[in-house]
Amino acid sequence: MTSLSNPASGPAAAPVKDVHAKVYGDLDHLQAPPVKVDVPAETQLRWLRDMLLIREFEIRCMQAYQEKKIGGFCHVYIGQEAVAVGCTQAVRHEDPIVTAYRDHGHALARGMAAKHCMAEMFGRIGGCAKGKGGSMHMFDKANNLYGGHGIVGAQTPLGAGLAFACKYMDEVIDGKKNSRVALCFLGDGALNQGAFHEALNLAGLFDIPVIYVVENNGYSMGTAIARGTTMAHSLVTKAAGYGIDGYVVDGMDVLEVQAEMKRIADKCRETSRPAFVDMRTYRFKGHSMSDPRKYRTKEEEEVFEADDPIGKLERHLKASGALSEDAFKAMLKSVRDEVRDAVAWSDASPAPGMDELFTDVFVERWGPYTGSTQPEMNGGTPNLPGTLTIDTKEELL
Amino acid sequence: MTALREIEFRDALREAMSEEMRRDKRVFLLGEEVAQYNGAYKVSRGMLEEFGERRIIDTPISESGFAGLAIGAAMMGLKPIVEFMSWSFSLVAADPILNNAPKMLYMSGGQFGCPVVFRGNDGAGGQLGSTHSWCVEGLYSNVPGVKIAIPSNPYDAKGLLKSAIRGDDPVFFLESERMLGNKGHVPEEEYVIPFGQAKVLREGTDCTVASWGRPVHFCMEAAEELAKHGISCEVIDLRTVRPLDIGTVVRSVKKTSTCVVVDQSWSFGSPGSELASQVHRHCFDDLDNYVHRVHTADVPTPYATNLEQEYLPNTRKIVEAIRSATYNL
Hints:
Chain A contains 14 helices and 10 strands.
């Protein structure tokens, strides 16, 4: 196992353990022995920048929400950056991923330009879904991101379907072995939805190469995990019930996340067996913009803030001499510039035209429905019905 | 001249699926008992043998799971056919079939379509009781983003199902357990039937009778009965309720000036109420009477044979409605 030591001058070790035990129910991931880090410094620097981009992007989202540029629900990813970055860096770009509503981090980690992600939240035509999806529905076909899903647990059968399709294409259509795997992210709250259990049963039954990554931040909205989930101290037992291998990973350490997920994904690719990961993480902010966080203590938050995945990697790289203070400041400035540009670009992007109300309901054109086109970021090309499509028409008088 | 080939409704469905699976490897079938058992209602009989277990897939009783799985696979470019043993069971898959399939293209801004066909038995099967007798079109036709076909005969079932499978959008395909054994002419040669095109089954001058699915047969019986009394009915089979071929109905009503809508779902907020509303709007100056509607009774489905018979639209109720609409009481 690869992991970073935590040189933070934070609370003493014993209280940290107590707080972790209180949130997750056990100490598994703290007991994991650290192993030598073997990732090139330039790669670590890239991951640091990827995490910083998410952090700064989310800070600007919170501001934009206060300014009412972003409407509806908005769930920020601050604190969990190591999970999206580490996981996406552990698999191939062609491996499909799908996630829940706290999805900005996954979109950015997968390669979506910050401006398309921000413009989507601003409800602008330049958004990844032309402003028709919103914060909870980030989709990116070119980067194999299959959403952004708003109903808790809804994405878990979809994740099985993505991986099923990868396998089906290998076995039935292509006749070659691409051996893709799918990553399906979910929050710990989704563990209590029926869809999750049906998905795990199907994945286990059909040997579907999907990896369920539970971003266990200890709370489903304001409900502590043990108040809503049985066996909260050992979530892997749920996977075991479906014959699926389970792993516990420290989601606050991007090096450990990447190394462990790479190992898990390689095995999944090779065996076509699903996997389940209890990814221990923590969201530093509330569930959404309107959450005063009265269900947890300031002391608890401080313990986890001291374990910040960004600060931890930053300190590690500085200690190893790979990152100077000036270089870090330059990195931070470039990230902030990128996010500021994304905001400016989104401000300038027009609202969707009224004709967009009736596009993308169906690929085929009929009645009031005027067909479908890809968003601007994919070139805006029309989605044409298949070669053997049917001439449907609804006669309106 | 050789006799026209007649096959059962279930055979027509199987032919449609098998033909499409032969021409497109992206198409596969999954559902409860579709493979080894040969289909709970023998619709998929023999398909496992021809296509193998990778393409004819038995699922556990897990509608939410396998409906969602099919949607994920469709987003990746495959073309799944999901068999619900009964559409009544689709209610536990409401989130994937209503919240994912119809909305994926829209909320992804045109990036991900969802070409899935969900099909299975809809409507009262015969003393199945309250929970197994759903006519889901009453609920599901409210949702934009899906097409809904409700064929009444083997010929339409085959042609419409082939259209459904070839299309790029999600389709709910509603069959009837009570009709799976019905025989009808289905030619050997290939054909497809476009969605959104009603068929005039019987021409008439006094009353337009519009329906879809199983009650179409009761409408034809009623028309036959009333013809003996000099009342001439024009019977229209809509075949799909989304798209809804309102034009064919309106042209007919402009001729007959009266209209009866027969719908086997509940009356409140139903395809029948929608059709009646549209007829009122488009034929306001042509109608001699308000549009009469025959639905199932507004109660849960009863078990007892006599109660179930009275609960469903039947020939007697349709005759009464036509007589009332045409002032021939």
